Every structure is written in structure tokens, then in C-alpha cells.
């Protein structure tokens, strides 16, 4: 291998943790199709495991009764995580007619359980995912990077 050519093959590696954002999708879909849509176009249906996470949504107004990423049995988030945080409206979940296995968000951000086949708008979330990527760097950039590394400990 020619040494000059060899020295040009440096790569820099990045790890990026993107911030989560909630995205309202104003298309009516059943819960399962809504989840599929979110996974294809974003990350997943919206999940809020703690009150602070739920509050991120309280600053925006969505329509009434929008699917979020919670279902059962037992109650769990779309990616199978569990959380003690719940925000049920009084009297919910009531599993009315024994067909209510999916969760929607009311205008006041409380939750209700409902029939998963009902067609509703839904909240997706995007981000909250670790991305790894790399980029080729020139010999000169590599030298600079080494200096920067040395100076930044
Ligand atoms: Ca209900």
C-alpha cells in the first residue's frame, strides 16, 4: 500500500442521541395501523413513562381522543416498557363491553381505554434513538482532531 494513500483513510465516529419530539398525525387509523405508521415514518407511537415526559405534550393542543402508545394486557408501552405513571380519566380504564385494549389521550391529556379498531388521529414520537455514524476525514483534519483530543483531555 502506498503510504500517502493509506494515511488518507481516517474516519471519525459519532454517537448522536437525538431529542424526542411528539408529532401529531391527523389521519384516522386503528391503533395497530397507527403504530405501524409511526414506526415507518418516525420512531413509535408516543410514549410517556413519567409525568415530566407527559408534560412535554401538555404545551400543544391536539384533537380530542388521539391514540398514544399504550395497550394491554397488562398495560404497557408500545415498545414493551412498563411504567407506574398513568394518567387515567376518572372512571377509566373501564374496558367497556370488554373490548377496550388501547389508550387514547383526551383534550385535557387524561387517558381512556378504547376499542383498538376505532379510527383515530394519533401521536407519534420521533428521536429518542441512538444513531451511530462515521465520516471520512483527511489527513489534515485527522492531525487537528488529534490536537483537539489532546487539549480536551
Ligand atoms: Ca373506556
UniProtKB/TrEMBL annotation:
<dbReference type="Pfam" id="PF00059">
    <property type="entry name" value="Lectin_C"/>
</dbReference>
<dbReference type="InterPro" id="IPR016186">
    <property type="entry name" value="C-type_lectin-like/link_sf"/>
</dbReference>
<dbReference type="InterPro" id="IPR016187">
    <property type="entry name" value="CTDL_fold"/>
</dbReference>
<feature type="domain" description="C-type lectin">
    <location>
        <begin position="17"/>
        <end position="125"/>
    </location>
</feature>
<protein>
    <recommendedName>
        <fullName>C-type lectin domain-containing protein</fullName>
    </recommendedName>
</protein>
<dbReference type="InterPro" id="IPR001304">
    <property type="entry name" value="C-type_lectin-like"/>
</dbReference>
